[in-house]
## 1
Amino acid sequence: MEKRPQLVPTIALSCLLLGACGDNDSTPLTQHLSPATPATLNICSDIASQFNFENTVITSSEMVSAGKVEYSATESYSAPEHCVVKGYMNERMGLGSSGEADTKYAIGFEMRLPTDWNGRFYYQANGGLDGSVSKAVGRLIFAGGTDSAALNRGFAVISSDAGHPSPAPQFGFDPQARIDYGYNAVAELTPMAKSLIKIAYGKQPDRSYFAGCSNGGRHTMVAASRYADMYDGFIVGNPGLHLPNAAVSQLYGVQQYSKLVTYNPDGSDILATLQTAITQEEFGVVSQQILKQCDTLDGLADGMINNTYACQKAFDLDRDVPTCSGERDGTCLSAEQKQALSNIMAGPHNSQTGESLYANFPYDAGISAKDWSYWEYYMALNRDTGSVGYVFSTPPTPFDNNEQAALAFIQSTSVETYAQRIHNTTSLYTESGYDFMTPPELTKLSTLRARGAKMMVFHGTSDAVFSTNDTVNWYKELDSNNSGKAADFAKLYLIPGMGHCGKGPTTDKFNMVDALVNWVEKGVTPSEILASVRAENTELPADWSKTRTRPLCPFPKMAKYNGSGDIEDAANFSCVASE
């Protein structure tokens, strides 16, 4: 039987460098869950013969020596000696693109179990449309660097494909695959994983954590709202809180950009043509003017806008960005470009009722980064079309797998129609795209709060696909529903200049895992989190130090320069109330 949470009163007295500094106002008496205790792995290669869980097949289990685990072609992570377990659950035949039950589905998974275990379980929520099992190292964007992944810190880690194979998004034809992707894979995998951990170590995990970014952030929010009785701590990155709406907003963006270009009649070079609507150089002009109006609002001209919401009042696209008087030359925007960008930043609206269909976006310096254009153009055309058409729309509205068909799909109807499709149901698809993707009761989180679990959320203010404002609006409502005390169990950190789950002119290297564990298990309330630049980030401005650090401040506070000392050192900044 899983160890029941034990509430222990404590007074938070310590201040830990990596994000565990108590608030300066006062240090209240808090409650925390009992700390995890370590154990040693006692079985690996024989797990399949000793583990029996309903509808679960273990396909392999083997020991791996300490060293680097190659996560992808460009990333590797340090790992101790551990056991790698692979398998799948709930294998079945389901609906494929033919409309017949001719496609094999299962919830595939990988678990990595360190020989020296810290007593904790970590669910690595992957992103995008899932469909493949990423290596279970406990990765969370660039957080803390390659040595700070959860596996290397002693966690037992699971990763999954969320219940469907590649290629995605064709799984959207199958109703159960949709639900597994939305939320059910977590419900199925969690008790199985904890039972397997008990076989491996002789006990179930004392504490369980869940983390992810992008759709992985949405997965984490879903777990916090649906499965808070199964997990003790959550790290949420750039979450797609209303992901179907955000995908509709992406299609709306392509509709707006398309007004600025003329596509080739033969359907060739669609992406290349779309990317000329507002070029990288022209987005750079916008960024320069945003910085001109907003950079010093936080007390220092350093290329970072910490006072995000004061900036929205200070910057005006039409007034501050030069309007081209003739041909575009990379130093100005045409009136038509300004109108399209303004519409996109305002978010899509129902043209008849004025109802907002997705949140607006804040203007920030990272609009000039490659990641912004990547999501505005490439991903909007090549991923969001499939997401809306196959997965979120009811019934599925598929199209051919090419950019010409994708563009035709985007231009085939109004944004209002797309917004309606994500709320539709039928006798076969009994849950709408909105319902199976969006976390229920998210602005209350009563179970999470009542049992002493905690949540830490971060979001880059230059995210082009999931609006920072959507997350801020969520947090404000959460705070209102909890009598102004949301900070007792949930913290939100806005990261200036950061794009979607990293990248851009920003400090996107940080460690929230230690801070969360200390909050959950020791009652040490986190305040600022130390963040640094990644020296390998090629989009860092030339005048930034490769060792720049900044404090990430809990919303609604912001980092402000103290007025003296090295501007590249976080020690010379304080978290203060923002305007």
## 2
Amino acid sequence: MSGAEESVFDVYRDRVERPLYRLFTEYGTREWRWLVLGMTANVIARAASLLPPVVLGAAIDSAFDGDAPYSLPLIPASLLPTAAPDPVQFRFSAAVIVGAFVVTAVLTWVYGVAANNFAHSVMHAVRTDSYAKMQDLDMWFFDDKQTGEVMSVLNNDATNLERFLDDALQNSVRIGVMLLGIGVVLFLENAQLAFLTLVAVPAMVGFTYWFMKAVEPRYAAQREAVADLNTRLENALGGIQLVKTSGTEEYETGRVRRTSHAYYRKTLAMLRLNYIYRPGMELLAGVSFAVTFVVGGLWLIDGTAPGPLTGELSSGAFVTFILLSQRFVTPLSEVSNIVSQYENAKASCERVFGLQDIPRRVTDEPGAIELDDVDGAVEYDDVSFRYAQGDPDAAGGDADGGHPVPDSANLILDGIDFSVEPGETVALVGPTGAGKSTLLKLLLRLYDVDEGAVRIDGHDVREVTARSLRRSIGYVSQDTVLFDGTVAENIRYGRFDVDVARGDGGDGDDEVHEDIVEAAEAAEAHEFITNLPDGYGTGIGERGVKLSGGQRQRLSIARTVLQDPDILVLDEATSAVDTETEMLIQRSLDRLAADRTTFLIAHRLSTVKDADEILVLEGGEVVERGGHEELLEADGLYAKLWGVQAGEIESLPEEFVERARRRQAETVLSTEDGE
């Protein structure tokens, strides 16, 4: 991805340093008890698993052949049976071997439980912290970030980390203990033969280093391909109705096929290195075993040390070498799996912390006050605003929370200046892209102004807590958002102090909390709700797919009614309903807006003609203001728009059309809802 195409997420992901170290310091330390328990049990279990071959070798030389005194590495002779041959030595050997297997089994179970608790606890913390961070990010992040990639971080990447902590980490310890333990035992048994057995280790280390360097960028590319595939699938499934009504199933299948094939190619590019590394490691480990077998076998058969080697080699020692060198092969062949999991986890870790490191601009200032007892006076004081895009360190921003704005960004709003008295209704009208929705998002502080100030009751919205600010404002947009759940649960969303039901019963209408019913009645929704199969307890499906557009909009309005805000924002609130339903909803909205400051955005000018003041926006500026009749008399843009909608003129004059085209060509990409 080129620098010009990089998103904010990509920039911060590339800046993450020592991601796995950070994972342990920030998350692993929270669960250190499980980690220590698992590691300790793992070490002891692996050490115990090395005892049987060593004891078997001692038994062969002493208890069976009677050629040598019974001895074990690092164990004082006073603790061992010394008479040879002696049934006591055999029984002792058998007891140690059985005991070693029991200890290995029990402690393997302990470290498995501990490792799983550690890994899943960390994964849970990473996922929930990343989601909380994502929820906390400013809207400019979501303007630039695709949902599928964020889902990939929360799901795929968190799962990769769990696998690494559960499997790769514990296996690394197991292999480390096995290799160190085997090396120590072999050197204690016969240092010369041990040197030949372990001579391949430096080559394996160098081979592994090469593999890690070569495979790292390929794992990062694969993770990006996963995110792209998730995004493509999410978009295709989210727009399934459009796909079907457009007959474009084959086209969408082709797009998914191409994205999936890109993932396939990048996965194969990573696997090709594994196809070289894994057989190579097995070959080196096999050579090590073969050298041990050939040299040790000749030494034992001839009775003299071959070549430059000196000393003697007993049958028991040779058996120990054969058994342990075979165990030496398997761990080394598993290193490739660990390296793969390590690189995969590293790439995922960079994405997780890249998300978590993205700064916020819209934050509560130190000493921010709670906005209580709102009267509803609103003032826009010479407000200008640009949408954020590009590198956070570009002009207008900084890495510590600045607003990413490139030099080429054009103003979306320029010099907006007006005030609203408590209880007044102000309508915003104008062409698509004029800045109407953006203007009101600044009131909600979804973005911060670049210049000027927005005030409520004399308080700059940047000087009050965002939570209290947004609690005082009810927002109904043209894009209705509902969650999978019941009708009642969606109406009371945000007012969790209101129980869904009055009593202990189910979700029947007679048990629904009266406040929810009253809100639905005020939004002209109660009648259609009671006709649903389970009334207020009816499940509406993901995004409310089981309801019509008008029904979804009325639930959204009911939710705002229940919120009982001090200031009301209606962004094309009746755009998804028919004329008859619009009349009913408009009546309820009039009641709702009667005693509170209301902002109304509408392209259908008949819904705004009774507003106390109408602001006409064009090109991010207020070009006209006044009442309905006053604006008609002025014969400006509003009058022309009214004439077109009323059928008095067929179309806008060419000067307005050309000006709109020019403005659209100059405007940078924005995310205004419906504009």
## 3
Amino acid sequence: MCGITGIFNLERIAPINGALLKHMNRVQSHRGPDDEGYYIDECVGLGHRRLSIIDLSTGQQPIFNEDQSVCVVFNGEIYNFESLVAELSHLGHRFKTHSDTEVIVHAWEQWGVQSIERFRGMFAFALWDKNKRQLLLARDRLGKKPLYYTQTNTGQLIFGSELKVLLAHPEVDKTLRSEMAEEYFMYGYIPDPYSAYKHIYKLNAGHFMLLKPGGKAEQTPYWDLVSPETCHSTDEVQTELIERLSEAVRIRMLSDVPLGAFLSGGVDSSAITAIMAKLQDTPVNTCAIGFSESDYDESEYAHQIAHRYQTNHVSKIVSANDYQLIDKLSTIYDEPFADSSALPTFQVCQLARQNVKVALSGDGGDELFAGYRRQRMHIAEQRFRDKIPYHIRKPVFSSLASVYPKADWAPKSLRAKTTLQSLAMDAIEAYANTMSKLRSGQRQQLFSRNYLRNLDGYTGLEIMKKHANAAPTDDPLKQIQYLDIKTWLPGDILTKVDRASMANSLEVRSPLLDHVFFEWAFSIQSSENIKGTEGKYAFKKALEPYVDHNILYRPKMGFSIPIADWFRGPLQHNLNSTILSDNVLDSGFFSAKTLKHLINEHISGRSNHADALWCLLMFAKFMNRQ
């Protein structure tokens, strides 16, 4: 796990500024505190920060082929590198290290761009072929590792693992992208391929760019989920899932440094811990954080799994009212990011790093096996939508939704406004409505008239519709799972974990996101993923011999923090001074009247606007740094 940096002369021949490259690279020293390395020629400059995990003695980057004509800087892990080394060695390639990185340069020599499809792992890398004068930038299939890029007015392509790397270059255009506020307050993050900045982009998951001097920076896809030819039943899942998942876990346990697992006490982390315990003779190193407030604490379930598998368990009880990290979080993510669980995620990464350098996680289970309540609700609503024609549903349920009060304070069963809104929509619009941090009507009230006029009808829904049009299936559940995999997974979950872990110089590996396992699991029948009100049904059934029943079938909890109480107590002044700062009020995005109304209503206790205010706080902290 590392960080990469690059400057490429896309439109001109000019010397690469080595001092600037080094400055940019060192901005992300947290991603690789162990070492740094550089390569510069007349066309390209590459920088690398290393977090040493495999081949500690000879794995320094950049890494070259035999005649030094191919060079790579790499962030991530290639888990099948040993089999690729054997294949490439048989074909005549000579390896001088035991690093997984070296396999990339020889695979490029042998197979060219098609080599990307042979890599099983998480990665973002930049490969320069001096003889062909080609630069290859590539990102893994599901977007576990980030890569940002931009083009300067002087014709240079600048790229790096984090936004802050690009922003350290004086010629990078830092103009904000006007649509980003609409997208952020819908999604809670800025979805790929966009960023907060008009001319800075993210390389999409499962895409590459092959660049030449004088060429264009265009993204090309190399992977996507396809419609499964066969769908697996519960019986097939139970006999095959553990075997397949065990392989995905096993290849992620290769490490030359201490390795462990996150153990939250949920289904997915418990499954990973159980399989790790099955695969190794020594106790698994596990870690968990618990909260002193019982409403937010699930550490007892983590202790239950730790006891069952006799792990070396480290647990730390923190206060759910520990809000001191908020300012740090707002800088870690470089652009507005509204997932409040980033705070406890940072804390558990901080704890893990005290004992291990690599941790396995359960990320991806809810997206892959339909574990979110919103997915079950969508399917239930879709059955209803299918029974009533759209031209009847739309006016009836739109009218009902308009008069039904917004009741965030009420039990979930009584929060019908969103459901009524969704019943008036088509399937994709309805799921986007359910997913939204702030619904369309709320965003309309939040934004200024001038900003809405400038948007000219544009909404973040267009991104969701684009992905829906590319979905490989019309199965209602798999279609929204596909939407989650293309938006929520890379934009929220994987971004959250990457930045929180790398800020602590910790590598996190996700067996459930192994693309081979992922493709197989995506073919499980939807009726086996959701049975009645139970999500992840087939997955849980397969895990029954390994994970306690009360953990498998308890209500999903997740990392949550008491932000509603914070805003009425210790963060009240911070909330006012940050959201109502001159930078925010003068940005042109917001209605000042609405901002003040949201704050006053929440603080008074008349309404609960905690989610909206958290989004605003994170956005305002970003704006105040501009």
